[in-house]
Amino acid sequence: MKVHVPTPLRSYTAREAVIEANGSTLGELLADIDRRYPGFRFRIIDEQDGIREHIKIFLNEDPSVDLSAPIGSNDVIHIICALSGGSIGWILNQDFTLYSIKI
Amino acid sequence: MKADRISKGPVSVLIGTRKGAYILRGDKSRRTWKLSDIMFLGQIIHHLVVDPRDGKTILAAARTGHLGPTMYRSTDFGKTWKESERPPAFPKVPEGQTGLVLNHVFWLTPGHASQPGVWYAGSSPQGLFRTEDGGRTWEGVAGFNEHPMRNTWCGGDKDGTPDGPKMHSINIDPRNPKHMYIGMSSGGVFETTDGGSDWKPLNKGCAADFLPVPDPEFGHDPHSVSLHPLMPDRLYQQNHCGIYRMERPEGAWIRIGNNMPKKVGDIGFPIVLHPRDPDTVWVFPMDGTGVWPRTSPEGKPAGYVTRNAGKTWKRLDTGLPKPAWFTVKRQAMASDRHDPVGLYLGTTSGELWASRNEGAKWTCLANHLPEIYSVEVT
After folding, report:
1. Do B67 and A52 touch (CB under 8 A)?
2. For residues B262 and B242, is the Cβ–Cβ distance under 8 A?
3. In the 8-state DSSP scheme, what is residue B250?
């Protein structure tokens, strides 16, 4: 399935903004990404399997906090360096890469 | 101990900042300097440290505002970098329990001379980590991170600094790699004699004015702790509550900051030791009154030096600007090994100041850098 990668993580994906990855859950998907791009997962998921404070992961249009959430081959994943606050609906209508520049 | 040798060669200053890192290279006269391009643009580099055992391996403790912590490693003095394959992380706890989450690595210390490849890292929140392969893979030091007293020593969320609780000042006894000291803000100074399996507080005589207990065993706020390599039984400490010296083995801190001018006080972040004279120490006082501005007292930046182990202090401000309202953080002041010794300090306003003559006169070597977090010299 397709995974949209924000700019801060593209140093891991050879600058690719969209990558393909596999898994039947979000956790498996991230493990697959980390196998191909070592170090990627720990920058967004902490050692207690929590999504880091300023990271959001969207399964299609819904934010997900559960790594055991099932996913299907037609699902689309967006990893976002989140603003603190704001409207999810507005974010979904924008270019996700913009959200990597918060200082 | 054998006297540390005098360096007559070129000097490199490793600078970690809130937005990346630099290496400032000077010739052997220390009069001509060249700043590198920024490395790790946009990443917070809390500490950038070279391995004195090979002179070319550098570790960089990094994170960004959004992304979690990691470590980078260079084996060619910063020309190329690789990310650690397994950066420091706390152990995962069973479902239903609350485990520690590493926010950032704050401090790096190369291991003992007899243990090439060994480094230690101190983190926020307080944790100790060790690598045996030069930074490729890291393991937690369970003797501290999982010590039954760790949470009591370190306190809770309200016991850290405004920038998060930190472990720092990892000092290794040059006579014995199993004998180490650490500092924690908060927590205090702790010592191990068995390579990190067990730890004991070492805070007797040190004030903790912010605690209701008059003479607590732990819970102090050391800002910087340094062991003198030529006199390893002597420790110096710049604490949240004063400047101290300790002579082992008796293990009581003596407040040598009481001999500082009252108008200046003895609060600050860094403490820097002379590489060859255990009686000579530099500090950079800051304002610890009122709401704790942490800028120089009265906006007049100055170093202070003692050449008699703290009996008297001399002000060193020639060349420094005033008024100026920067802060010099705890890792942001260092010395070289030339004669006379060179001093280097980085400011929160992004300036790198240096003195070729032990603080007698200061010169600005670089400005307009991001906020400087650390300065190391080789």
Report:
1. yes
2. no
3. T
CATH 2.130.10.10 is right for the domain spanning B11-91+100-377: yes
Domain boundaries, chain B: 11-91+100-377
pLDDT band at B258 (very low <50, low <70, confident <90, very high): very high
DSSP string computed for B140-204: E-HHHHT-TTHHHHH--GGGS-TT--EEEEEEE-TT-TT-EEEEEETBEEEEESSTTS--EE--T
Residues 16-35 of A with CB under 8 A from B: none
pLDDT digits (tens, 9 = 90+) for A6-58: 999 999 999 999 999 999 999 999 999 999 999 999 999 999 999 999 999 99
pLDDT at position A94 over 60: no
Of the two residues A101 and B317, the one the predictor is more confident about is B317
Q: Using the beta-carbon criterion (under 8 Å), do B67 and A9 form an inter-chain contact?
A: yes
Identify all chain A residues contacting B18, using CB atoms and an 8 Å cutoff: none
Subunit contact B93:A48, Cβ cutoff 8 A: yes
Flag whether the pTM goes above 0.90. Answer: yes
Cross-chain Cβ contact A52/B83 below 8 Å: no
Per-domain residue ranges of chain A: 2-100
Q: Which helix (H) or strand (E) holds A99?
A: none
A46 to chain B nearest CA, in Å?
Answer: 6
CATH of the domain spanning A2-100:
3.10.20.30
Tell whether B41 is within 8 A of chain A (Cβ): no
Average pLDDT over residues B237-242: 98
Please name the residue of chain B whose CA is at the shortest distance from the CA of residue A8. Answer: B67
